[in-house]
Amino acid sequence: MEVLPLAEAIATHVCDGQSIALEGFTHLIPFAAGHEIIRQQRRNLHLIRMTPDLIYDQLIGMGCAERLTFSWGGNPGVGSLHRLRDAVERQWPRPLALSEFTHAQMAVAYQAGASGLPCGLLRHYAGTDPLHAPGASLRTMHCPFTGADLAAVPAITPDVTILHAQQIDADGNVLIRGILGAAREAAMAARRVLVTVEERVEALPAEMNAIVLPSWVITAASIVPGGAYPSYAQGYYPRDNAFYRAWDEIARDREGFLAWMQRHVVGVRDHAGLLRALGVAA
Amino acid sequence: MEVLPLAEAIATHVCDGQSIALEGFTHLIPFAAGHEIIRQQRRNLHLIRMTPDLIYDQLIGMGCAERLTFSWGGNPGVGSLHRLRDAVERQWPRPLALSEFTHAQMAVAYQAGASGLPCGLLRHYAGTDPLHAPGASLRTMHCPFTGADLAAVPAITPDVTILHAQQIDADGNVLIRGILGAAREAAMAARRVLVTVEERVEALPAEMNAIVLPSWVITAASIVPGGAYPSYAQGYYPRDNAFYRAWDEIARDREGFLAWMQRHVVGVRDHAGLLRALGVAA
Amino acid sequence: MSSPDYSRDEIMTVTAARQLRNGAVCFVGIGLPSAACNLARMTHAPDLVLIYESGTVGTRPVVLPLSIGDGELAETATCLVSLPEIFAHYLQRGRIDVGFLGAAQIDRFGNLNSTVIGAYAHPSVRLPGAGGAPEISTYAREVLVVMKQSPRSFVSRLDFRTSCGYLAGGGERRASGCPGGGPSAVITDFGVLRPHPESKQLQLTALYPGVSVAAVRAATGWPLQVADTLESVPAPEPAELATLRDLHARTRIAHARPVHINL
Amino acid sequence: MSSPDYSRDEIMTVTAARQLRNGAVCFVGIGLPSAACNLARMTHAPDLVLIYESGTVGTRPVVLPLSIGDGELAETATCLVSLPEIFAHYLQRGRIDVGFLGAAQIDRFGNLNSTVIGAYAHPSVRLPGAGGAPEISTYAREVLVVMKQSPRSFVSRLDFRTSCGYLAGGGERRASGCPGGGPSAVITDFGVLRPHPESKQLQLTALYPGVSVAAVRAATGWPLQVADTLESVPAPEPAELATLRDLHARTRIAHARPVHINL
Question: Domains, chain A, ranges and CATH?
Answer without folding.
Answer: 2-100+157-277 (3.40.1080.10), 120-154 (no CATH)
